[in-house]
């Protein structure tokens, strides 16, 4: 079966077409014929070896990718979950070895797959699962109440955008960062206040919320650098495992999307919000799967707004 992956970890040029074995259906799973796979920063870690789950000598290679859109091709026993063969779906993948989104077909737990948002293209639908689940999980861990204030760094990115839109839907006030060229985008996503991004973003947030915000979601991965923006005893959601140092009584919540990767009702609710226009599905560009190396180069170069998506049918 055709996939895009690596047999030697390295830069974007390490990605190439590889042949991987088909995956077997088990009870509670289904097979998805993949049409589109979103490209995210975690994929770079798989390609480079930073998130390796195998050694280079094992198996057919490592396949990146955490987001798929496609068609249900086959259902395992007890695997219906309200879906039928031929249904358009989206799903979240927890990559391991050759089990990644950049492949023609993939077998997933039924809890990781829901009907695709109506009216969305496959490329648009593929931008939803991983980042929207991550944002929802982060907000649930922060446990703010309507009327409280959330700061979001990395606000112009896909995760940041979902954080803003879900926070506003929860009734929160959002202070978000942006480069000058992204300020209008971040306002359009729903931020109440926009401050300039950078190493001094915590200072800028304190200028508009002198007492400190009630919580912060650090999608820009600035870790300790952004903690001064948060009021004593408040909460911070982090996305690369940073756990803080116990200062000022802050509650630091590392967000791991694999903890909710089979929360089907959560993914379905996010799909519904996308259909309602509460969440914006942002596609930066669609490239043929054979151009995965170029997609990784563009992502690593920075400045991509929305998700680059690979067309697995091309």
Q: What does this protein structure show overall?
A:
- The chain has helices spanning 41-48, 122-126, 129-142, 158-169, 183-189, 201-208, 264-276, 292-301, and strands at residues 2-5, 16-19, 29-39, 67-75, 88-92, 105-109, 113-115, 149-153, 173-178, 193-196, 213-218, 230-238, 251-254, 283-288, 307-311.
- The chain is of the alpha/beta class.
- It has two domains: 2-128 and 281-311, Alpha-Beta Complex (Quinone Oxidoreductase, Chain A, domain 1), CATH 3.90.180.10; 131-258, NAD(P)-binding Rossmann-like Domain (Rossmann fold, 3-Layer(aba) Sandwich), CATH 3.40.50.
- Strands 3, 4, 5, 6, 7, 14 and 15 form a seven-stranded mixed beta sheet that branches. Strands 10-9-8-11-12-13 form a six-stranded parallel beta sheet, with helices on both faces. The protein has a two-stranded antiparallel ribbon with strand order 1-2.
- Strand 14, helix 8 (292-301) and strand 15 form a beta-alpha-beta unit.
- The chain is globular, with a radius of gyration of 19 Å.
- The mean pLDDT is 94.
State the name of the first-level CATH class of the largest domain. Answer: Alpha Beta
Describe the sheet with the most strands.
Answer: 7 strands, mixed
Write the element-wise H/E pattern from the N-terminal end onward. EEEHEEEEHHEHEHEHEEEHEHE
So what's the overall shape?
Answer: globular
The appropriate CATH architecture of the largest domain is Alpha-Beta Complex
- As a percent range, the share of helical residues equals 10-25%
Name the CATH superfamily assignment of the largest domain: Medium-chain alcohol dehydrogenases, catalytic domain
| SS strand fraction | 25-35%
SS class:
alpha/beta
Low-confidence stretches: none
């Amino acid at each position: 079966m055709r996939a895009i992956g690596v047999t030697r970890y390295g830069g974007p040029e390490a990605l190439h077409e590889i042949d991987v074995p088909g995956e077997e259906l088990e009870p509670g799973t289904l097979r998805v014929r993949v049409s589109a796979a979103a490209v995210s920063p975690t994929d770079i870690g798989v390609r480079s070896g930073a998130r390796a789950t195998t050694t280079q000598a094992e198996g057919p290679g490592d396949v990146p990718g955490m987001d798929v859109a496609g068609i249900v091709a086959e259902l395992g026993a007890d695997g219906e979950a309200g879906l039928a063969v031929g249904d358009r779906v989206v799903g979240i993948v927890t990559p391991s070895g050759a089990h990644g989104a950049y492949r023609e077909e993939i077998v997933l737990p039924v809890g990781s797959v829901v009907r695709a948002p109506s009216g969305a293209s496959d490329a648009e639908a593929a931008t939803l699962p991983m980042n929207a689940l991550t944002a929802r999980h982060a907000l649930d861990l922060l446990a703010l109440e309507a009327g409280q204030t959330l700061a979001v760094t990395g606000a112009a990115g896909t995760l940041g955008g979902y954080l803003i839109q879900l926070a506003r839907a929860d009734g929160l006030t959002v202070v978000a960062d942006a480069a000058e060229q992204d300020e209008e985008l971040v306002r359009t996503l729903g931020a109440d206040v926009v401050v300039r991004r950078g190493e001094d973003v915590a200072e800028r947030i304190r200028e508009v919320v002198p007492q400190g915000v009630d919580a912060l979601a650090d999608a820009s991965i600035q870790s300790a650098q952004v903690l001064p923006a948060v009021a004593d005893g408040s909460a911070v959601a982090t996305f690369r495992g940073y756990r803080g140092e116990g200062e000022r009584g802050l509650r630091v919540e590392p967000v791991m999307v694999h903890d909710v990767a089979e929360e089907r009702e959560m993914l379905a609710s996010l799909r519904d919000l996308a259909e309602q226009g509460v969440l914006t599905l942002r596609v930066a560009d669609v490239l043929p799967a054979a151009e995965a190396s170029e997609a990784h180069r563009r992502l690593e170069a920075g400045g991509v707004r929305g998700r680059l998506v690979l067309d697995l049918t091309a």
